[in-house]
Amino acid sequence: MKHNKSSLKKTTVVDFKQDAAFFVDRGTRFLNRYDYEKALRSFRRAIELEPTNAECHCHLASALAETGQFEASNDVLYEVIEKWDTSMSEVYFYMANNYANLEDYQMAEEMAVRYLQEEGNGPYREDAEELLDYIYFELDMPPRHFQPSENEDVYSKHERARRSLEEGRFLEALDILKEIVEADPSFLPAWNNLSLAYYYVGDFQQSMNTIEKTLEMENGNLHALCNLAVLLSHHNHTTELITLIDMLKKVVPFHPENTYKLATTMGVLGQHEEAYFHYLRMLKSGRPHEACTYHYAAISAYLSGRKDQALRWWQKAKQLDPDAGVADQYIQMVKSEQEGENIKPIPYQYNPPQKEVSWEQASFTGVENFKTDPMIRASLLWALQHGRDEVKFAVLQTLSLIGDDEAETAVRQFYDSTDNPQLQKLALLALADMGAAMPEHAPKSGDSESFDEWNHATVEEGIQRFLVEDGQVAAGKWCLQFWQEHQENAQSHVQVRKALAWVAALEYVYGTVSQQKQSQAFLAQKYGVSVSTVAKCVKVLSMLDFK
């Protein structure tokens, strides 16, 4: 009897070990093939076999994040760091990414900073810093925490510079931003804000150079491209501008802050249809927005012919910021305009419509708006660089009334840069009116025309302008005569450099003599000087006989 050879072969049994490592490897292969269901089953099986293995839990968390289950992923990661391996600092980075995907940016910042604190030179350091850059500068969220590393100073400095830009302290911002890019040339948000700072102070060539450097480092940087478009528009470089606008029209940013930047830029460039499209996308997202965003969106709707939508958005702006009074004026403007009439141009600024800036009138009406409005400050600095001589004269007067550190710095820089002797003297007058020290190389008393003579002439001019030309002829004549007597009889010259303080004091003295007394506080506010300075001048004048 013959036997089949195959039936005589000895059967061999292979021990196929299916441990946690096997299922992790299997899950990874399924994940790479986008078979998420099998990947999740494999990683859960690995955890069943080795429940205390922290890496198995991390693989499961990664797969959950891949499927969009970010909260479930973080639940697993919290368990890892609390129960299985407290030294796995990379878990904080994983959680930061999950929170960012959930748009919980405060917790994303918390976790990213925690990772950098635990693992300053870890493998995800650059990624964590990029996430913080995105939160702080793309989302425009001020830092709540600063990691203890060399980047701490960069972040805090940049936030300070950003606030300075928003508040109109452009020269201060310029100095801070230059320090940042010198210390860290790869820090793109600082380069973008540096170009804006140069633009606001009127140094357009440096602004252009800065934009070009930014685009060399990142060719498609949206903020830099938007800044470039505004600069090209300012210089009437039509051909390059049209090409750039055509390119920007094709961009549809994902993130709201990039959308906001592009929408505002398109509006400033007169591309109101595109601005409206982007604002509409932002406001449809369901996220909360500030009143100014609804205001800008309303402008884009109004200027693209959508008046009903503009009214709805201005109503929303009014609801969010009822005390500002801005939306009320625009609502009335739309309601009073007849259908078919030409639409008036409106700037993309959160201000009442048709607001005009008159530097020559600043000393008459007070300077509070000039102190607090960043756009007015930018206009002043621009005019000091590029305006006619008579405009520069008015700007110097206004800066002397503002009198803060930013104004003093601007006047000093102008004094050093101009070669016009007349404007140099006006700059010295402005510095003296602020009570600032004179430049070392400034003319000393006893030169061809002393500074005191300029100051006295200005007091007389102030009396003429603020009293005589304002209809107070009798008061003006009395003050001129009394001022001349003071100059002839004064035993010593008190160091009060603000000419308008003397005018205020003279008007106060006249009011006392003529039974038309006004308070020193009222007159100090009228002339934009401090009450203490007016009181000092009144004390000096009272040494003469009033009658």
Which helices and strands, and how do they pair?
Layout lengths: L4 H4 L11 H13 L3 H14 L4 H13 L3 H15 L5 H12 L3 H14 L6 H14 L13 H15 L3 H14 L4 H13 L3 H14 L4 H13 L3 H12 L6 H13 L3 H12 L7 H13 L3 H14 L5 H11 L25 H4 L2 H5 L1 H13 L2 H14 L2 H13 L3 H14 L16 H18 L4 H17 L9 H15 L6 H8 L3 H11 L6
Description:
- This protein has helices at residues 5-8, 20-32, 36-49, 54-66, 70-84, 90-101, 105-118, 125-138, 152-166, 170-183, 188-200, 204-217, 222-234, 238-249, 256-268, 272-283, 291-303, 307-320, 326-336, 362-365, 368-372, 374-386, 389-402, 405-417, 421-434, 451-468, 473-489, 499-513, 520-527, 531-541.
- The chain is elongated, with a radius of gyration of 34 Å.
- Helix 10 (170-183) runs antiparallel to helix 11 (188-200).
- With 547 residues, the protein is mainly alpha-helical.
- The chain is built from 30 helices and no strands.
- Helices cover 69% and strands 0% of the residues.
- This is Tetratricopeptide repeat protein.
- InterPro entries: TPR-like_helical_dom_sf, TPR_rpt, Ycf3.
- It comes from Brevibacillus choshinensis.
Brief synopsis:
InterPro entries: TPR-like_helical_dom_sf, TPR_rpt, Ycf3. This protein is mostly helical and 547 residues long. The chain contains 30 helices and no strands.
